[in-house]
Design goal:
The protein is α/β, with parallel strands linked by helices. It is about 35% helix and about 20% strand. Strands 3-2-1-4-5-6-7-8 form an eight-stranded mixed beta sheet, sandwiched between helices. The N and C termini lie far apart (about 45 Å). The structure holds zinc ion. The site of zinc ion (ZN) has 8 residues, from α8.
Length: about 250
């Protein structure tokens, strides 16, 4: 690390759990972020400011005025521009050292798999079950750690599926692909702005812990946030031995 990096990351370096060694791991890390919206904003902002070496952002949408209430990586002047371009501009202004790759495309299973292969961790900030399941399948197949999050109304949830561990549950153990789960989109249901910030920030924290090998992640637990009562609880998550995605055939 050069002098400027030692200064920029000094508050991380001061933490004995991270230190120079941990910061160097972050600088060498590659993170794949699915979605540059309400969750993707705080995820990308913290991973970039913390110096994660390569950030790949996938989102095919353009910034809409209705996004700005919570999607804090975007600015009013970016309305109409692709979200990944808007995010890249904001992130470059915060930390020009980070390489941000913006993919303005709707990624399907094959594409997610090809991208995930090339990254150390996958962070899911998408807003629909089809994408979440495609991301999960790729991570199960490639044994990549997956940091999953969701936010709608006043409710949030976060889980880490550390699929490097053969005993880890996967997203489909929790929400089977054949389940009746219906997408509850912010566009229809509404969402309390800071809930996306809290959930995305927790996802960023878990990602930095995974990349540095620091502390205990949420692996094996599901964190549930009720922002209306401001209550947080975690429940244990077990691998489903009959899971259609991760159970051995
Ligand atoms: Zn599973």
């Amino acid at each position: 690390m050069n002098d400027e990096q030692l200064l920029r990351y000094s508050r991380h370096i001061l933490l004995p759990q991270i230190g120079i060694e941990g910061q160097e791991k972050l600088l060498a890390a590659r993170a794949l972020v699915i979605g540059a919206g309400g969750l993707g904003s705080p995820i990308a902002l913290y991973l970039a400011s913390a110096g994660v070496g390569v950030l790949t952002l996938c989102d095919d949408e353009a910034v809409d005025l209705t996004n700005l209430q919570r999607q804090i990586v975007h600015r009013t002047e970016a309305v109409g521009r692709k979200k990944v371009e808007s995010a890249r501009a904001t992130l470059a202004a915060i930390n020009p050292e980070v390489k941000v790759v913006g993919l303005a495309e709707r990624v399907d299973g094959k594409r997610i798999e090809a991208l995930a292969r090339d990254h150390d961790v996958v962070i899911d900030g998408s807003d629909n079950f089809a994408t979440r399941h495609a991301v999960n399948r790729a991570c199960v197949k490639l044994r990549k750690p997956l940091v999953s999050g969701a936010a709608v109304r006043f409710d949030g949830q976060v889980a880490v599926f550390d699929l490097r561990d053969a005993d880890s549950a996967c997203y489909a153990c929790l929400f089977p692909e054949s389940g009746e789960s219906e997408d509850v989109r912010c566009a229809v249901m509404g969402v309390f702005a800071p809930v996306t910030g809290i959930v995305g920030s927790i996802q960023a924290a878990e990602t930095l812990k995974l990349l540095t090998g620091t502390g205990e992640t949420l692996a094996g637990r599901l964190l549930l946030l009720d922002a209306l009562a401001m209550q947080v609880r975690t429940i244990k998550l077990a691998k489903d031995p009959g899971c259609a995605v991760c159970a051995p055939r």
